Each structure stands twice: as C-alpha cells, then as structure tokens.
C-alpha cells in the first residue's frame, strides 16, 4: 500500500494552529502582539520554550518576549545580542527552508558569544532524530513576510514536547508561523503609529496638519491594503481613498476604486459577512474581486475615524492579503478528508456525507411530500448531492422563499418531534428530505428512487501486491479510482474506504438502475491496467445497499458490505476477475 509521506494531521491540531495564527492580530498593543507570538509557539507548535528577538533601530536584537519558562523570562527579557553575533548564528548549521538549525555538535562555538540564551540540562537523545539539550533552532522574520525583505527579528525555539527534531510538517508549520508573526508585528507597529496619529488629531487644531501628513504617509506606504470609506448616509461604504497596496492587491487603479464600495467587490457568498463587519471595530475574512475576475482572500478590519470634533465619521479599513494562508488551510483540510494515494474522499469523509443524508426518524406511515419521496424526489436529484429536487415530494421551494418568515426558528422545523403536531398542520417547508430504500422485492421495481450505496471489493488485488510489490498495487488502486470516478455522474461520491475497498454513493436510483451501475463499474474495472510495462487485471465484487433514515451510516455500510460478500461467494472464483 501507499506510504504516508507526511504525518497524519488531526483536525484538532489544524484548528489549534489556525487559532494561534488568528490570535496574532487580536492583541491590543504592540507588546501584547510580541508576547502573543511567543506564547503561540508554545500553544500551537509543540515547543516548551520560545523567545522573540526583535531588531532595534541600531541593528542589534533585543529579547522582546519569552514564552514557556518564567525563569528564563526573568533572566533573558530585555537583554541585547549584537547584530554580528546573530548574523554568525544564521550562517551556521543546516538550512531547513527559511529555518536555521544548529545541532549541538556545531553549536559549541556559540557558547561564549553575547546573544542571550537559555538551555536546560538533560541527557543526550537515544534516537537519531532526538532533540539534544544544546540543539538550536531559529525562525527569522522578515518585513513583508518573505525572506527577500528586511530582517525584523528572530524566533528561537527549544525543547519539542515529543523530544524529537521537527519533521517536514513541523518545519513547515514553524516557517508559516514565522511568516504570519512578521506580518502581525508589522501591523501592530502600524496600528500603534496610526493610533498615536489619531490622538494627535483630537488634541488641537495646530497639530492637525502634522498628524494628517503622518497619517498620509502611514496610509500610502503601508505594506498591506488600506482604504477610507464614508460612514452613514446615502453613500455609506463608498470608498474615498485607497492606498497603493490595495490597488496592487485588487489590480485596480485608485480612480476606479473611488467609484465603488466593498459591497461591489465582495464575493456574492460573502455579502452577509461584509454587512456584519460594517459595525464599529468589525473584522472578518472574505473574498474580494480582482480586475481580472478572480477573487483573493483578505482579512478585513474596520476602525471608525472622526474627521474632526463633531465632524463626519469615516471607516478606516485595513485589508490584509491572506490568500496563501487560506490555500494552506484548504490543502491541509483536503488532506484530512481525502485519501492521499487516490485523491478520493476517505473513510471519515464518506461517513460524513452519508450521515448528512440520514436522520434518527424513519419514514412516518402515511407521510407524504418531504417524508416520502417519489421518483427523482430524494433531495439529491439525478446529478447527485445538491442537484435538482423539484419533484412533487422534493425541495420544490428554496430557502429564500421562507427566509425571514420564522419558519426556521421554531421547534420541530428539522423533522424532529413536533414538526407535524403544530396547530394548522405541517409546516410549509422541511429542509431534511428523508432517505427511503426501495422495496425489498428484487422482482419488482416500483419506480421508487433512493440513495444507493455500492460497496466494491477488488478481486485479485492481493496477488498483484504479492507478485509485483506495493508500487504496482498503488498504481492499480490509482487507476481503479480514476475509472470508478469516471463511471459515475457529477455529484455522486466515489470514496476509498481503505485497502482495496471502495464505496459509491449514487442518489436518485431505483433497484434496476443500481444493478446497471454496478455492472458498468465492474466492466470499467476489468480491462488490463499497465504498470511498469506489464499488463495486470483485477475484478470487482459489488454489494448494493440502500440508505434509509433511522439507520446509521455504519449500519448502511455494513449492509452493503454483507451484500458484497454474498455476491462474491455466488460467483465462481475464476469469474471474479479477468486474469
């Protein structure tokens, strides 16, 4: 089988890393931001000690924050290391991407320099990749986030909780964290400067002109996008000014932006998020349209600015490009829900999709419409999940028709107890469409359509693994996955359950349709597959189960699995695969 190239990342770990990155921009002051950077290494990256060293105006680096060890904080905080000593450190050891790792075997030459350091005595590691007490790992931070910018500081880390040197994912996580920490520190400095400018604006008219110039420079030359918009009145939200960074980010000239508002630029799915962000101090993550029609993920943060005492108020909007972080999050989430070899949804994602169609309540006797679907009325439609369901018993009316009527705010609206016990009869719309299996009589197809669950086990796959090795087996699994995915409709689900087992979810099928689909997929699998110049063949045994409300996802899969084994035993061994 396939070898995992990276450790399995639990969703809880991803959420924790996402949270500490998000916390970087929520600190109220510059000092709080720097301390949050140090604490985030401890909370989200699995180290027991961290120190944030920031570049001073004279070029030397001062220990601005320490996390994880109060004793080390008392001894190190505020101490200064020379720039020459730091540059020497960053030139030694191994380069792990943007990180610098100095093993204990090379780091002894740094013991006497003037850089503040803290080591906890301990035994040497007993494994090759173990962390030695004298190992050193540094994550430089640069202005603009990339290594091409100016050095603004260095994050030092020590004592991984697992006692080992970080692997590929741990290094990538620390490198990504240093990128966002550099941006957060730069933004915190910018916000501090802007707050001081705003205070000067309120004190006296004489300082107003100087403050305006300071603000103009901070606004125009900010590394991230900024805009000023009208607040209140008929022109609420119309952009008055936009800096160069925002113009570059959106690919639009400042003159064009002044004729628009963020509501004109936001992705239609994020309109609600933007409206909630318009409040004072609002902050959100949403997508804005570029000039070429593409969209970019940004972090949008609003502050209210008074033009003068009792004068009109404006919205100062800070727009930070978070496209790279969002793409990383999507990639990590995709890895957690999809099989790394075939790219198909994995077992957990399969159970999630199947479980979303099931509820605890089986079909009510005599129920109609939403509880008893007819042909094409399963809620998924002929093209699968979320497709057309406008039949007599399907979702013929959308959510918008009942939005704001209170239909979705009342007990029992989702088909639970009380949904049909209200005065006046049933509610006008029920979001959940019950999954109902067709009749058990195989000789009769009553035209009822349901959610078919096809359980596929490959025949002859083990012999390919044994004869030609796992590399050939992996190639066969990849090709089988491709053929299965090509043989279903858009909206159907093909998932890899594990090993040589696959599951297909196909909605809107009758019993005859499901049998035809199983035959087509079996015929798609049997043609020879070329692996390293040789042709190999596998077959497939299919069991057809049916999802029905009142069952769990596990029960549905077990039913299909049992039917697959019945079907496998019913065929002679030499007929299970082509060769």
UniProtKB/TrEMBL annotation:
Keywords: Coiled coil, Nucleotidyltransferase, Transferase
Start and end residues of each PAC domain: 282-334
GO MF annotations, alphabetized: diguanylate cyclase activity
PAS domain: residues covered: 211-293
Region Disordered, residue ranges: 354-387
SUPFAM superfamilies with a match to the protein in the record: GAF domain-like, Nucleotide cyclase, PYP-like sensor domain (PAS domain)
GGDEF domain span: 449-579
Coiled coil location: 187-214
Keyword ATP-binding listed: no
CDD domains: GGDEF (cd01949), PAS (cd00130)
Composition bias, Gly residues: 368-384
UniProt name for this protein: Diguanylate cyclase CdgB
Species: Streptomyces milbemycinicus
């Amino acid at each position: 089988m396939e070898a995992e190239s990276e450790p399995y990342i639990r969703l809880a770990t991803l959420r924790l890393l996402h949270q500490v990155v998000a916390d970087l921009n929520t600190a109220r002051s510059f000092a709080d931001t720097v301390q949050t950077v140090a604490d985030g290494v401890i909370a989200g990256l699995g180290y027991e000690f961290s120190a944030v060293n920031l570049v001073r105006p004279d070029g030397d680096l001062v220990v601005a924050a320490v996390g994880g060890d109060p004793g080390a904080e008392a001894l190190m905080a505020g101490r200064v290391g020379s720039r020459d000593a730091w540059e020497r450190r960053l030139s030694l050891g191994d380069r792990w991407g943007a990180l610098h790792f100095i093993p204990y075997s090379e780091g002894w030459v740094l013991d006497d320099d003037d850089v503040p350091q803290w080591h906890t005595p301990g035994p040497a590691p007993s494994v090759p990749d173990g962390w030695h007490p004298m190992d050193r790992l540094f994550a430089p931070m640069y202005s603009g986030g990339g290594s091409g910018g100016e050095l603004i500081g260095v994050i030092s880390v020590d004592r991984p909780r697992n006692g080992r040197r970080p692997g590929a994912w741990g290094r990538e996580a620390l490198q990504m964290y240093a990128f966002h920490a550099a941006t957060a520190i730069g933004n915190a400095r910018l916000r501090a400067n802007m707050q001081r400018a705003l205070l000067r604006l309120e004190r006296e008219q004489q300082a107003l002109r100087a403050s305006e110039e300071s603000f103009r420079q901070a606004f125009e030359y900010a590394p991230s996008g900024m805009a000023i918009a009208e607040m209140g009145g008929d022109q609420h939200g119309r952009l008055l000014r936009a800096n160069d960074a925002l113009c570059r980010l959106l690919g639009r000239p400042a003159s064009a932006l002044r004729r628009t508002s963020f509501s004109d630029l936001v992705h239609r799915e994020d309109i609600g998020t933007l409206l909630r962000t318009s409040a004072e101090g609002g902050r959100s993550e949403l997508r804005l349209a570029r000039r070429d029609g593409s969209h970019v993920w940004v972090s949008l943060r609003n502050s209210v600015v008074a033009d003068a005492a009792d004068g009109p108020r404006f919205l100062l909007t800070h727009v930070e490009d978070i496209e790279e972080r969002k793409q990383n999050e999507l990639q990590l989430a995709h890895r957690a829900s999809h099989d790394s070899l075939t790219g198909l949804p994995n077992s957990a994602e399969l159970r999630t999709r199947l479980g979303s169609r099931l509820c605890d309540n089986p079909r009510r006797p005599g129920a109609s419409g939403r509880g008893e679907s007819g042909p094409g009325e399963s809620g998924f439609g002929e093209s699968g999940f979320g497709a057309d369901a406008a039949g007599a018993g399907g979702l013929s009316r959308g959510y918008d028709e009942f939005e704001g009527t209170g239909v979705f705010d009342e007990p029992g609206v989702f088909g639970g107890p009380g949904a049909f016990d209200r005065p006046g009869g049933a509610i006008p719309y029920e979001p959940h469409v019950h999954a109902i299996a067709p009749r058990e009589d195989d000789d009769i197809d009553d035209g009822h359509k349901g959610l078919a669950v096809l359980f596929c086990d490959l025949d002859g796959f083990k012999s390919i693994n044994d004869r030609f090795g796992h590399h050939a087996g992996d190639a066969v699994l990849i090709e089988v996955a491709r053929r299965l995915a090509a043989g279903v409709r858009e909206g159907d689900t093909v998932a890899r359950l594990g090993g040589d087992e696959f599951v297909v979810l196909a909605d809107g099928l009758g019993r005859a349709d499901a049998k035809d689909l199983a035959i087509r997929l079996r015929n798609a699998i049997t043609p020879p597959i070329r692996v390293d110049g040789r042709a190999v063949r596998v077959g497939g045994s299919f069991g057809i189960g049916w999802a029905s409300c009142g069952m769990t996802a596990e029960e549905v899969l077990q039913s299909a699995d049992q039917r697959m084994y019945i079907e496998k035993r019913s065929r002679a061994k030499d007929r299970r695969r082509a060769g």
